[in-house]
Amino acid sequence: MAKPDTKRRADLLQGTLDMLILKTLTAGQMHGYAIARSIQQSSQDALVVEEGSLYPALHRMARRGLIEHEWGLSESNRRAKYYKLTGAGRKQLKADTERWSSFSAAIGLILNPPAVQA
């Protein structure tokens, strides 16, 4: 029997992974493992991006022109694809961030409704 996870981890809402990857790449080019690690560290281990989700997202985003890659050597001296943001990716991140802010504000209103004035 598998041991239950002692830390509760949040599931990513559909579409948020792309936004998180774009935001992570604003720090500069990174290989896939570094992107996943950065998201995990930035979220204080609440978000763990598995390879099975990360690499299809990176390939999809590259096809859409949001990111591009070049080959380089990782810290462990292995060949790796380094991804970087494109101009289209920066525009998409801005739009996604605005949409996410509106969405989370709306959810906040439902979870914490403003006090009714008498």
Automatic annotation (TrEMBL):
Pfam families per UniProt: PadR
Domain Transcription regulator PadR N-terminal: 21-94
Listed InterPro entries: Metal_resp_DNA-bind_regulator (IPR052509), Tscrpt_reg_PadR_acidobac-type (IPR017799), Tscrpt_reg_PadR_N (IPR005149), WH-like_DNA-bd_sf (IPR036388), WH_DNA-bd_sf (IPR036390)
Name of the protein: Lineage-specific thermal regulator protein
